[in-house]
Amino acid sequence: MTDAELLRGTELFAELDDSAIGRVIAASSSRALRRGDVLFTESAVPEHLYVVEEGRIAIASKSDDGRESVFALMERGELFGEMGLLDGLGRSAEARALGPSQITEIPYGPVRAVFEERPELLWGVVALLAGRLRSMDSALADSVFLDVTGRTAKRLLELAAHQDEFVLPITQEELAGMVGASRERVNKAIASFVRLGWIDQSDRRYRILDREQITRRAR
After folding, report:
1. Residue 112, pLDDT score
2. What is the CATH number of the domain that holds 204?
3. Which pLDDT belongs to residue 86?
4. Residues 142-184: pLDDT tens digits?
5. What is the pLDDT of residue 2?
6. Rounded average pLDDT over 18-43
7. Are residues 128 and 155 part of one domain?
8. How many separate domains does the chain show?
C-alpha cells in the first residue's frame, strides 16, 4: 500500500486530491516503535497526528492510583491524535505501542493549510468526529448495561474479529484496561467461558468453540 492509499483510507484524508495528499505526505515521516514506546502522554502539547502502518497502538488514560483504562486499540490504517489539530489543547490520553509498530507521523501545519484552502474538505473532519462520538456512546452504554463478564466477552469477540482461533495481541493487564475492571475479575470471566465450553484457552492463544453463546453474553 502506498502512502497515498494509506492516508486516503482514513476519513480525514479520503477526499484530498493528488496535490493536497502529496503535500501532506511530503511533510510526513515514518517512525518505528518498540513495545512500550510512548508516542505522547496525557496533557502533552500536541503537534502531530498519526496513522498506523503496522502494529497496534493503545489509547489509554491512567488514574491517580495507577489504574489504566484503554479507550481504543489503533491498528493498520487507523488515524489518531487529531483532537489537538482542532482545539489546540493538551492530549486527552496517552498513546503507547503494544508491540513492534510502524506509524506515519504528520505535523499539523500542512494539514491545517490544506483545510484552510479548501474548507469543504472539513466534512471529513466531521465524519471522523462523528465516528469517535459513536464509539464513545457505545463504550458508555457497555459500562452501564454490561457487567464485567459481558464486557469481557465483547472485547474478546472484537479482538478475535471473524476468526475462531486467535492469539490475544495484548497482555491480560491491557485486556483488563479495555474491559474497565481488575485483572482478577477479567480472568474469572474468561475462566467461566472455558468452564462453560464457549472458548478454549492456552496462555494467550484462544479458540472460540461456541460463538453464538459468547455473543449472547456480550449483549
Report:
1. 92
2. 1.10.10.10
3. 84
4. 777 889 999 999 999 988 988 999 988 888 888 888 888 888 9
5. 59
6. 93
7. no
8. 2
Instruction: For residue 28, give the nearest of 115, 88, 108 by alpha carbon.
Output: 108
**Domain end marker among 72, 106, 138:** 138
Same-domain check for residues 156 and 122: no
Domain span including residue 107: 3-138
Task: Give the angle subtended at the CA of 136 by the CAs of 84 and 106, to the nearest 5°.
Answer: 30
Q: What is the pTM of this model?
A: 0.78
How many CA atoms within 13 Å lie on the side-chain side of 134? 6
* pLDDT score of 63: 75
Give which of 210, 215, 211, 195 is closest to 146, Cα–Cα.
215
User: Are 32 and 102 a contacting pair, CB within 8 Å?
Assistant: yes
Our measurement of the distance from residue 140's CA atom to the centroid of its chain's CA atoms, rounded to an integer in Å, reads 16
Triad 157, 158, 161: Cα angle to 5°: 85
